[in-house]
Amino acid sequence: MWRQGRWTTEPKEDTVRNVTLAEIAQRAGVHLSTVSRSLSANPSGVSEPTVKRIQAIANEMGYQPDPAAGMLRTGRSRVIGAVVPRLTDYVLARIYEGIDESARLNDYQTFITGTNDDVNLRLSRIDSLMARRVEGVIVGDARLDGDELVGYLKRRGIPYVLVNRRLRGHLSVTTDDVKGGHLAADHLIELGHTKVGVVAGPEFASTCVERTYGFVQRFLTAGIGVPDSHIVTSRPDAEGGYFAASQLLRDHPDITAIFAINDFAAIGAYGASRENGREIGEDIAIVGFNDVPLTRFMSVPLTSVHSPMFEMGQKAAQLLTEVIASESKEQHESVLLEPELRIRESSTGMRSSPAS
């Protein structure tokens, strides 16, 4: 307190002083190197009781590791980056949660950045990650139309793994999207639908292309053609789904079922169907993809192909840390996760012809 031109007590410092390894070593009565090994991610050469005692002392003293000092000492940042198209997308957020948990368990930190599927923004965002000295990158926005970002990482020898979307010849962790398309088609074929439409999403995303391919292929196998005019590309969101489904129902009013490449596009298709006088689950069936939780609680719950999003992120991070450790991608293999069809009211009890 300030009184009569002087402090009556010493003012407190605004910042907390970092506890050093040397101070912990002095308190524990051990060599500095013993403390360093005991507080590392994988203690070695120190007995378990000693490790626990030193960790307890460090916690008691309020020790916080210095990432910068650790990087200078080891030459490693223990940081991985993640690039995704949209930070607000539930599917991508769930995948990132899996990435972050797996990274944490492997003693890595993560940084995530969104690109909005913008070709130029992708390269600037990857530069930002490189400035953070990331040891590897998980790419969630790979493009089929010539991927400069993936080429950039490959040329520079930066370890990377693709997630959600895939490219031939590159390590990836994805759902088996072709099989997911098969599941959606089989369900609608069993219900007797022969006039179907597809909200296909953008042509540069493997998820959209492969789900559409699997769906159409299954109908062809059953002897039922899906004309090109029944397949409409779109943005992969609710607005895109709305406009694509509106076009389908306007141009082909005999359509009795719509397959949308993700649940948000399917939600848009709900709106378009109602505007066209169709009753979802009564005279038009709608099937989505991913099985986002909110779709279960819609007025007409959505039938959807379940994708293991969290597990996808976990496995992508695990694979990347293995690649970083081995410094070779040749000994690793891509992972395809199994989709499952979750049947709900949006597709059940359907007639095979539109309402009169």
**Average pLDDT, to the nearest integer?**
88
Count helical runs.
12
H/E series: EEHHHHEHEHEHEEHEHEHEHEEHEE
Cα shape: elongated
Distance between the termini: 85 Å
User: What are the low-pLDDT stretches, counting only 5+ consecutive residues below 50?
Assistant: 1-16, 68-75, 351-356
**Secondary structure: helix percent:** 40-55%
The major beta sheet can be summarized as: 6 strands, parallel
The proportion of residues in beta strands is 15-25%
Tell me how many strands there are.
14
Q: Strand order within the widest sheet?
A: 4-3-5-6-7-13
- Rounded to an integer in angstroms, the radius of gyration calculated over CA atoms is 27 Å
Structural class comes to alpha/beta
